[in-house]
Design brief:
This protein is an alpha+beta fold. The chain has eight helices and 13 strands. The strands form two sheets. Strands 5, 6, 7, 8, 9, 10, 11, 12 and 13 form a nine-stranded antiparallel sheet that branches. Helix 1 runs parallel beside helix 5 and helix 6 crosses helix 7.
Length: 297
């Protein structure tokens, strides 16, 4: 069986390219021949996957991180075809893979994926979100986590998800911005006031090791919304260990609700991230859920 394998060679600070031979070998051991197609620039994988789906491919494989998964989801959703997706995580944080229950070991993930493809099996159907016209698989962050993502993206050291810890430290050093936000969930106002972050999660993890939405599930038909009021640097430091363990939701500064249609309006244009990919500053983020929109192999 021949299946397109889309590779982002710079994912994981170059780890993806280094792991390619063992990934191809693991797939071949299950009877799956990988037709390797590398992306060359931002958006290229998205375009390639969209064309592959439109050309009738029944399934595609992606080797990369959350950014690659983001492009894959957008490519498949725009193609509007029933093309299934297999993911082999070789990124920095691999938040989506963790939420989906895909092994973080890329070789093991490739072996299990090859077996499912050969056996005609799927892993699950998952929900997909849409924010201002862009799709996301894992989540949207507006506020401090977008700044952390921005800082992490500029760190080229091969230190894995420690780049996000460095991003948090630099954010604290620079000072915490608390723009005023109003958050509406399914037509009801859930929050309004100075805000450290608003995170809308499909998956449970962000930044590799932060369990931001411990109750989130990729296929439950709901998005989890976590809003943090204005907090001091000291309070952020105090909350971090709880955030990493998913024990932070009871903190008095936090609001946690679920819904399918979330609108975040800011008093000033600010940056956000979708699946860790930075978006242009804007005031309003219109976020909607599309239930069971994507099939995972």
């Amino acid at each position: 069986m021949r299946v397109p394998l889309f590779l982002n060679p710079i994912a994981g600070r170059g780890r993806a390219a280094a792991r390619l031979p063992e990934i191809v070998a693991a797939l071949a051991a299950s009877g799956v021949q990988a037709d390797v197609r590398e992306s060359t620039s931002r958006g290229d994988m998205e375009d390639q996957i969209c064309r592959a789906a439109e050309d009738g491919e029944q399934c595609v494989i992606v080797a990369g991180g959350d950014g690659s998964m983001h492009e894959a989801a957008n490519g498949l959703m725009h193609a509007e075809r029933e093309t299934a997706l297999g993911l082999i995580p070789v990124g920095t944080g691999n938040d989506f893979a963790r939420a989906a229950g895909i092994p973080e070991d890329s070789n093991l993930a490739a072996v299990e994926l090859g077996q499912r493809i050969a056996g005609g099996e799927t892993l699950r159907s998952i929900d997909i979100g849409r924010c201002n016209g862009r799709f996301f698989s894992n989540g949207v962050g507006v506020g401090i986590d977008a700044k952390v993502a921005s800082i992490a993206a500029g760190i080229r050291l091969p230190i894995g998800d420690l780049v996000y810890i460095i991003g948090v430290i630099r954010c604290l050093w620079d000072g915490i911005a608390t723009p005023r936000m109003t958050v509406t969930v399914d037509g009801e106002q859930a929050w309004s006031g100075p805000t450290t972050l608003t995170n809308v999660s499909n998956g449970a993890w962000v930044g590799g090791q932060f369990h931001i939405a411990p109750e989130a599930d990729l296929g439950d038909g709901q998005l989890n919304v976590v809003v943090a009021a204005a907090v001091s640097r000291a309070r952020v430091v105090a909350l971090l260990p709880k955030l990493m363990k998913g024990r932070h939701l009871a903190a008095p500064e936090l609001t946690h609700v679920t819904g399918r249609h979330i609108v975040v309006h800011c008093d000033e244009p600010i940056i956000a991230h979708l699946d860790g990919e930075l978006q242009a500053p804007t005031r309003t983020f219109d976020i909607q859920l599309q239930e069971s929109a994507l099939v995972l192999l």
